[in-house]
Amino acid sequence: MYEGDSFFTLSPMGRAGLVLLSILLSGALIWMTAGLARAKPLPVRLAIAALAFYGFVWLSPQIYYVYYIMIFDTLPWQTVIKAPPGGGDLVKIMLFQGGATLSAHGIAVLGWAVFAVAAYRR
Length: 122
Prior knowledge:
Layout: H1 12-37, H2 42-71, H3 87-94, H4 102-119
């Protein structure tokens, strides 16, 4: 399923760094969402999750691009953040319709995790 994925074009160290960066960013997003959603009513917690996930989908490509600049000398410094995604785009992501790539599936899993953390009542 993932044979042609660009992840596999990276060196083993490049892959390890990308996985580590993804774990750190995902952990930070989940931790932030859990903290902001604590002791709030369920609709507010879910709104916080939606906003956090929306922001991540919109802004995280720049962080990943900076990582790629670090491993590929030839990439120019530039902004890769595009227009904010629409609500339909987020629904497609959450339904695993964002493409058959590790990145698309990983962000869908992250989205479900963010909503699960927000929905969980401590």
